[in-house]
What we know:
Subcellular location: Cell membrane
Domain P-type ATPase A: 130-230
Largest sheet: 7 strands, mixed
Transmembrane segments: 37-54, 95-116, 250-271, 277-301, 594-613
Distance between the termini: 46 Å
Protein name: Zinc-transporting ATPase
Helix content: 55-70%
Radius of gyration: 33 Å
EC number: 3.6.3.-
Mean pLDDT: 79
Amino acid sequence: MAQLTLDRILHKYADAYAAAICGILVFFGWLCLNFNWIGFALLILTAAYVIGGYESTKEGLTTLWQEKELDVDLLMIVAALGAASLGLWRREYYLIIDGAVLILIFAISGALESFAMQRTERNIQSLMAVTPDTARLIHNGRESQIAIAKLQVGDVVLVKPGEMIPTDGIILEGQSTVNQAPITGESIPVDKALGDEVFAGTLNGNGVLQLRVHQPPESSLIQRVIRLVEQAQNQAPPSQQFVERFERGYAKVIVLLGLILGTLPPFVLGWDWETTIYRMLIFLVVASPCALMASIMPTLLSGIACGARQGILFKNGAQLEKIGRVRAIAFDKTGTLTTGQLEVTDIIPAAQYSTERLLELAAAIESGSEHPIGEAIIQAAHQANLSWQSATNIQAKTGQGIIGEVAGEKVTVGKAHSLTRDLFKIAIDPKLKQASHTLETAGKTVVWVSLAEETIGIIAVADTVKPEAARAISSLKQLGIEATTMLTGDNQSTAQSVAQALNLDRVDAQLLPEDKLNVIRHLQHKYQNVAMVGDGINDAPALAAANVGVAMGVAGTDVALESADIILMSDNLAKLSQAIQLGRRANRIVKQNIIFALSFICLLLVANLVGSINLPLGVIGHEGSTLLVTLNGLRLLK
């Protein structure tokens, strides 16, 4: 087992190890040359060429053989070997170091690319961990454990209190409250009864449920989420496709020009063959795209380091670029724009009762409940420094309310439609009905409290907006963000009230994960560059499909954190505008570097053509331009 784990680690980080070893060998080879230990230097640098250039050589030759295309990998190898050959030929061994540095740069680039590709596998593994591996199958009155994959349509599954629901199904027997926040993002657990659908990956409350499997496990909602994340991450963005086309086009042009420069001058310009080969090798060295590569990565890495100091974690440099180009941003509601925890917002007693008395009675009854609404009421009572008598004979009626006795009198806490049913038969105070309607219109959940068959008041609870959310939205609009949208699984009235409080441009409610993904794609069609900010499993497909996915570092689930490209470590939405500003600065510096690098390459190429530089000057110019654009990129560390 230990050997298997070691093999897996070595395979996973093979590119990173190769780049690190190559860098060490280049350093020691340079030291040996400085001490004039030529033999040792050549041996060490040969190892650096082989170890650092193996993957690039293999990829370049594979592309050439299978796709009949040239890419920058092969061009780099040719330039490096050309520099090494010329160094051996003229005994100018520092040229071998130059070629080794070229290989080292590409080895580091390959390691970063491999790391990015491994993220997809981790994302999918995190999603799969959401659901249990087995389910309780009920067959002929007997209960047995069975693998989820073996469930068939029509099977009956038992789910006990507090268990994760293993598969999508229809309730055949029982009733309970189900926490669907991981899938739909709803902040309040949903009451489920006979005939209702439940989803795999959601958490059962205090009821026992029997479910009929109505679709194959592979078609469950959570499995669809997994496939959507996988598809979204495997789709290369347009910018990446453009870079790949540019690299191959650039390589073709350089190789073609190199061949022309290595054959025509003796016939056209009257050069001798030694001069011709010499100029061709100088051309391959100065035309190598190291300065272009250094135009981007040091800048982005500096931006990543700067963001990390501010609590903004960029998973790769491409996302730092993309966040600077974002034109529209979509937000999840629960846990992102709101706290994700229910709080008592309004307490309205009947005329003859006080606010304290109403809250005391409600807290006494809810002390025997584990429902989030009950927990919010108890918390509010503690914050008000209230004390209450213990309730007796407490009975929780799932989906209806809770009943008990305080000092010998019956007290009931429940929703209005539940209190009027046969179970409770309590008349609703018409004076409180209008207040309840107003609160519900504002997106709040209202519970009624009765004492001895008389309603004595109402208590409203809600998932409250984060204090910094409004300022964050305002800052984004000042930066020129064209559209701010909220995506949520909550009901329309709740979503609308939050959107109005934050001055959002648009709100889409009652969405499943695939609905959120469709909204993101619609926004991309209209605004091209779209960011998605979320924290839950239900946000994973949208986070993966958006041009930039942003997750909450504290409240975010493992799946959201893996699917996202950027993580706000302190859950502070104000950091989002800082990330955008940092991205825009990075883009400006990258443009400056690219213009400088291309201009300098052109200058060196012209100087080589007219014979104004030798190989050492070409190397100095090549490495000097690389150093300058690198230093310019490091300005982002401030």
